[in-house]
Specification:
Four copies of one chain form a homotetramer. Chain A contains nine helices and 14 strands. Chain A has 306 residues and is of the alpha/beta class. Chain A has two domains: 142 residues, NAD(P)-binding Rossmann-like Domain (Rossmann fold, 3-Layer(aba) Sandwich); 157 residues, Lactate dehydrogenase/glycoside hydrolase, family 4, C-terminal (L-2-Hydroxyisocaproate Dehydrogenase, Chain A, domain 2, Alpha-Beta Complex). The N and C termini of chain A lie far apart (39 Å). Chains A and B meet through helix 1, helix 2, helix 5, helix 7 and helix 8 of A and helix 1, helix 2, helix 5, helix 7 and helix 8 of B. Chains A, B, C, D: Keywords: NAD, Oxidoreductase.
Amino acid sequence: MSRKVAVIGMGHVGSTVAHYIVANGFADDLVLIDSNEDKVNADALDLKDAMPNLPYHTNIVVNDYSALKDAEVIVSAVGNIKLQDQPQADRFVELPFTRDAVKDVAPKIKASGFSGKLVVISNPVDVITSLYQQLTGLPKNQVIGTGTLLDSARMKRVVADKFNVDPRSVSGYNLGEHGNSQFTAWSTVRVLDQPITKLAAERNIDLPELDKESKLGGWYVFKGKKYTSYGVATAAVRLVNVILSDARTELPVSNFREEYGVYLSYPAIVGRQGILEQSQLDLTEEELQKLQNSANFIKQKYNESK
Amino acid sequence: MSRKVAVIGMGHVGSTVAHYIVANGFADDLVLIDSNEDKVNADALDLKDAMPNLPYHTNIVVNDYSALKDAEVIVSAVGNIKLQDQPQADRFVELPFTRDAVKDVAPKIKASGFSGKLVVISNPVDVITSLYQQLTGLPKNQVIGTGTLLDSARMKRVVADKFNVDPRSVSGYNLGEHGNSQFTAWSTVRVLDQPITKLAAERNIDLPELDKESKLGGWYVFKGKKYTSYGVATAAVRLVNVILSDARTELPVSNFREEYGVYLSYPAIVGRQGILEQSQLDLTEEELQKLQNSANFIKQKYNESK
Amino acid sequence: MSRKVAVIGMGHVGSTVAHYIVANGFADDLVLIDSNEDKVNADALDLKDAMPNLPYHTNIVVNDYSALKDAEVIVSAVGNIKLQDQPQADRFVELPFTRDAVKDVAPKIKASGFSGKLVVISNPVDVITSLYQQLTGLPKNQVIGTGTLLDSARMKRVVADKFNVDPRSVSGYNLGEHGNSQFTAWSTVRVLDQPITKLAAERNIDLPELDKESKLGGWYVFKGKKYTSYGVATAAVRLVNVILSDARTELPVSNFREEYGVYLSYPAIVGRQGILEQSQLDLTEEELQKLQNSANFIKQKYNESK
Amino acid sequence: MSRKVAVIGMGHVGSTVAHYIVANGFADDLVLIDSNEDKVNADALDLKDAMPNLPYHTNIVVNDYSALKDAEVIVSAVGNIKLQDQPQADRFVELPFTRDAVKDVAPKIKASGFSGKLVVISNPVDVITSLYQQLTGLPKNQVIGTGTLLDSARMKRVVADKFNVDPRSVSGYNLGEHGNSQFTAWSTVRVLDQPITKLAAERNIDLPELDKESKLGGWYVFKGKKYTSYGVATAAVRLVNVILSDARTELPVSNFREEYGVYLSYPAIVGRQGILEQSQLDLTEEELQKLQNSANFIKQKYNESK
């Protein structure tokens, strides 16, 4: 068996996912799908133009849903980031567009006979992940949103800058909606072998300020580029690789939590069967309340979206 | 010593170069420069958001020309691809814009004390490479254009498709201007251990048709995406890695050929000192004529550009 | 689908193959088999001790033949290099040992239901590859010996040193037996865009001397280390990756040529189905004679081995 | 600037370090040094035989101490593992041999003008690291032993197996001597977002049993292979990469702690200047006592070794 991965939606994020995979030889077969035939063919051709100067070969198939049947992972990056480029917009301005796209795409995925794992980047990711699960009929553990894997990375960047260490030497999570109701669960964050709450008290560091900075990260990127791509694509491909290799890595991703009745980001053990085990954090009362609020918000948006 | 690389110009190509380098840990220090502060900061932040999910760390410095002093390689990707998005446009519509940008950038590179290698992607690349060499005062062998390293890759893709083999199992070159006057030197192309001219005769393959298809490749990508990025960025980063590791690889890149008096693409041995040795092909009379025409065209454009 | 690869025989070469695969994340599932339980378990444990400091995860399974059923590629590295450590020894001193090992291993591979590709490193490789094909009953195109992929690399190293270029900028092949009857087919070798025969004449280079140096390479390594590992393991893993990704790369490997009636090294297009197409070189009369001699030698040894 | 790394001592570990670096293109220039000329030349040649089939090029220099002058990192893997292959042997049986080797090597490093970072794998590592620091006169923060970076990896492997997760999702440290007096500081170990001490109590897991299993790991590998290589080489190369890229990663390595007056393993922030900052753990009384015992043992051995 070789590695087969698909990317649906070749906007900035989807094409960056495809390029990252091809440049590193992470997949043997890569299926690219987009309703914009010119765009997906252009990306495929551009990637093929890269291959003679790359060490790895990847077979690229374009716009063939039947090729999804034996894919191990499909990455959904459908969306329309341009809709966010207006005052007061948030990820939910994309919902009607993306919902309609998913209603088109999901039945085709289902019809292909696909039985692998679906990694959802499309925003608003928690609602869209839920929608995908419902429309494809895949088991809940096989449909996963990248969720706050990106936001947690942003939090780590901010904390790492503050403490002057490698962001990979910071642990902890942002939880809840991949959107405005999310929050850093500071009780889970550790750096320099200490709870950050302890260090913050000792060193007079304003954690809400770090939280704000972390949240603003995506906004700064969006403001400067009119989209975000590298951070989220890297998170998504990491998730894909964890699934392919059955690594059983603990990652904060959007997964269905029974107690909240929605998809939201909360750490889980991820492997070849998707979500293998759900973690159980010891959150503070305040964090639990924030998480409940975030869950409520996602549920409300999901109900509105149907 | 660690690896220090810089990218000037954070459009589609420059940012793809930066992402490819960061995602693979090809550099330890990466300097990103762009006159659009918001864009370059957004890309830097987006790349930093990727790092917690990457295996490698890269130090990113933004808009600091003084950091170029001890860089091993600078990649110039300044340009304005949007100018090409009009009927009858070719790479020369970018010339006035890019010439002015280079006149701004090159003296700053010089002032930094930089004495490394300059890899030029900016179009029209042969003219711009020449301009950079002149304005920075760097030795000619240290200023190199990516030139037809991309076009040769496109030719390999087309030939590989025709013969159903890996494009890396095709050898040979496109020569001359990275532009409309370039051509595939079919006398240099080999596949399946045979000169392609022999195989084409045996199998009734129309080489001019392949040439056309190869040339159209970039146009198709441009048409579908409004820019090209992965092919050219991969070529550029391969060139950077060859320089960093002093690999002495033979590559068709834009280098100054005395007999033509211009920068144009012709294979050369590339290593840590830049162009180490110039190859000498046995071209046909027709190919020599095409190359002369291409050289004349570049010279004329260069003279007009001054 | 994920990537599943197996290595049978955990001596110096097999364990280097395993380490190279694990260190680069080339496989998702890796089956390691050796009759020396302590050794294979030690290597597996040592590789697992590496993983917490590696970016990739690989699932390692030890000594389970049933796990071969759905493997994409099996690498055979069984052998006993110590037998070569005596005066006048060549690769054939390993034959009785390895033949017996293959007679033990091959039926177990067959019984597992394996229907993938078998990459044979075990020496004398041409005879052993033939034996594996016969005993497993796999189609001839699915059983491939690494053959002169290593010897060609050694030739490229020697030529590259002489011409002061990257060995990857040298093309051409060593042909025939991976053993003393092999030879460099100088008519196929090109460097600096010229046939080496032409350059050798111009520059007064003694090609037989280069041939000798190339052949001595393995002997020097063996003399200094009492085994060889990195060169051959790299060749084998390159072959594995070409198969996994269906790259259709042209490689000089040991494949069954009807006109000679034996397995011997001759370039072929390799992809996911193994040998996809056999190349056809324009060899000189002298080279054809050498190849015939090499084929005769292999045939004789094969007949003796049965 | 490009990356220059040296490896001194080409036994099983040193040569695996060299191969891992070459196979991944982690260095541009690699200096290999060993008093056994045949062995180091054999390894260099074997690595060069790998390069034509590798995507990266590395310049290899053999047995030239003057080439160390501008190296960024030197890895010391000198030692004689065979000395450990006897009943009741521990890492200290290597001490007289390695001490003498270091007394030969260190002055040559100093004489080269080397001012980079020295990564010591040679056993007994804490004593040997100290000896290197003293004999080279390099600042203490620039001389680092791999120490319990390997033992911590082994502990993570054992814990990960128990909890069925990725070892990279386990955090925590083994501390003290890289030898028999080391211990897992269970108070630092976390898995599934909980202190392992809490989970062990809940799930009735015997931590001393895990500790024993973790310690036995190296012994099992040694028993089966007569040496260990992949785990420790991976740890060392990770440390090298962290230094090259100035990643500021927190790692449990052997560094000089003033309060104990010896080199011992304790987490520290590592970057381009070596040890940038020393962590401060909240150890239990029992752990502090164990660490003091381990420090005393190292000090005693160091004094005996002089």
